[in-house]
Design goal:
The complex is a heterodimer. By secondary structure, chain A is an all-alpha fold. Chain A is built from four helices and no strands. The chains are: A mainly alpha, B mainly alpha.
């Protein structure tokens, strides 16, 4: 039986499915009965979904145009 | 909400297209380079910015990175993924610029994270999170909160987090780009994820649930 501390320690590996099947099953079992650990897992997964969406991060206005203009000049493709 | 990673089938198709573009560029069709780098240009900027924290420097480093990638494209091994190789150049270029600016001398002292003696980060926010509809991510206050949370991460965690969870490099590619062991990447990523979650909890958590008696209690960690 895994404890909350062990779930916390393995949280990232659990999300990445980089964990042995036996431990994974024990964590899944723990999650079914532990609201705090379930919240922790759910909110960490949501965090990763949020930051994985490229709209979230601002890029300077005109960056892409300036970049391609610079490359075109250097590469002679303008 | 966008999926975290493209499916393996999509990834294979992207790699096939990329391989064709790379062959074309190396064969002299230089204009194809623009198309080749377009999917990564935002990520290259964000990576440079995460290291330099200066818009002008980050833009210049992105330009230098891509110019260097063009000049050395014929040295990309056939078993090497273009994306990982490109981000490796970006990290090296940004770190060189950082050294040149002497930024590392001013940031290293205050940048170390506060950790327990075991080096683990302890979460404190346990409110359940709302579902997050995709359109919410267009809102200025949300984008600002996410960017601020990323900027608040200690430098070494920010770099790992950005390459792995924002740019979706593999653990191996992240390790190579940053010159870290696989186990260091995993440890730093774990801490970065927990700290990002903690910082974003006040934004996305259901604040009312904090007040419900059954959710209160002793921190099990």
């Amino acid at each position: 039986m895994v404890t909350c501390a062990e779930v916390l320690k393995e949280l990232s590996n659990f999300i990445d499915e980089d964990i042995d099947p036996q431990l994974r099953a024990e964590i899944e079992n723990h999650l079914r009965g532990c609201r705090r650990c379930s919240v922790l897992l759910d909110s960490t997964r949501k965090t990763l979904r949020i930051v994985g969406d490229e709209r979230v991060f601002d890029i300077p206005v005109g960056y892409s145009e300036r970049l391609h203009r610079f490359l075109a000049k250097k590469l002679g493709t303008d | 909400m966008a999926a975290r990673d493209p499916s393996p089938r999509v990834n294979n198709a992207i790699e096939r297209d990329e391989a064709a573009l790379i062959r074309g560029v190396c064969a002299g069709q230089k204009e194809l380079f623009h198309e080749l780098i377009r999917p990564y240009e935002r990520g290259i900027y964000l990576t440079a910015f995460s290291i330099l924290r200066n818009q002008g420097d980050a833009e210049e480093v992105a330009q230098e990175t891509l110019l260097k990638a063009f000049s050395h494209l014929d040295q990309l091994r056939s078993d090497e993924k273009f994306k990982g190789w490109l981000f490796l150049i970006a990290v090296n270029e940004a770190r060189m610029r950082r050294r040149k600016n002497h930024q590392h001398l001013f940031e290293s002292i205050d940048d170390d994270p506060v950790e327990t003696t075991e080096g683990d980060f302890m979460p404190h926010q346990f409110a359940d999170w709302r579902d997050i509809p995709s359109e919410v991510l267009d809102k200025e206050e949300i984008r600002s909160a996410v960017q601020k949370a990323l900027e608040n991460l200690p430098q070494k965690y920010r770099e790992v987090f950005l390459l792995r969870d924002v740019q979706h490099l593999s653990v191996e590619e992240t390790s190579k780009a940053l010159g870290l062991s696989i186990s260091a990447v995993k440890t730093q990523l774990h801490r970065a994820r927990l700290q990002m979650r903690e910082q974003l909890a006040p934004v996305f958590g259901r604040r009312w649930s904090d007040r419900l008696p059954f959710l209160k209690g002793r921190n099990p960690w």
